[in-house]
Amino acid sequence: MAHPTVAVLERHLTLYRRLWRASVFGSFVLPVLFLLSIGVGVGGYVGDVGGVSYLAWIVPGVMASSAFQMAAGESTYPVFGDFRWTRAYHAARATPVGVPDILRGWMLYILIRVLVNALVFLGVTALFGALHSPLAVLAPLACGLLGVAVSAPITAFAATIGHDSYFALLFRFVMMPSTLFAGVFFPLEQLPDWLEPVAMASPLWHAVELCRAATLGAATAWPAWLHAAYLLAWAAGGFAWAVRAFRKRLED
């Protein structure tokens, strides 16, 4: 018998193999179209940013924000549905699979999804000459770390709520502001001084900094290890919260 964590991962990959066509547009095509419309179209009016074209400057931001949105989207309704509608987690708990195994398998699935998307996105942007450093190959790793850092706490949140209407609040008051004010579309220095620390609290900003440093060969605002440690702290804290939330929910 496969390790319980691997069994959970296999279950998610098997389901995705049957449903992947429905996610192609949102996962691959839409980010590329968005990148071209903003990076090339708007970039023609913006000009250079930080000594590089706006297209090259925005590539790492769009890559990280795509990972951010994918991890969040996968961790809302699918998690809630496996509790409320299909009761898949209850079925898994009736087997030798434990709660940590359920969550580790889920996090590995999110990591794989984000890494694959980031690699494809990176390959497409390379065709447009938007990568300025061989270190760009490390950018998907930053996206993968971001995916886990975002997915863990949102998975925990999804396990604590009793109605899916709460996700609208999450998307409107957390996801959207994080995407707009995390340095994806413009330098963080253009924000008011009081708003900069708020933007820096978002895991997305740290991933954008790491991705931009990788694709442009530039220095990060903080030491790279500190950005990574911040994302790891979110992942670890979210995982611990998710373990408690899942155990409580499965005992009800």
TrEMBL record:
InterPro entries: ABC2_TM, ABC2_TM_bact-type, ABC_2_transport, Nod_factor_ABC_transporter
Keyword Iron (UniProt): no
UniProt topology in membrane: Multi-pass membrane protein
TM segment ranges: 19-42, 54-72, 110-131, 137-159, 166-188, 224-243
Signal peptide bounds: none
Domain spans labelled ABC transmembrane type-2: 22-249
Gene Ontology biological-process annotations: response to antibiotic
Principal location listed in the UniProt entry: membrane
One term of GO molecular function: ABC-type transporter activity
Keyword set, alphabetical order: Antibiotic resistance, Cell membrane, Membrane, Transmembrane, Transmembrane helix, Transport
GO CC, one annotated term: ATP-binding cassette (ABC) transporter complex
Subcellular location: Cell membrane; Membrane
PROSITE patterns: ABC_TM2 (PS51012)
PANTHER family according to UniProt: NODULATION PROTEIN J
Annotated family: Belongs to the ABC-2 integral membrane protein family.
Protein name: Transport permease protein
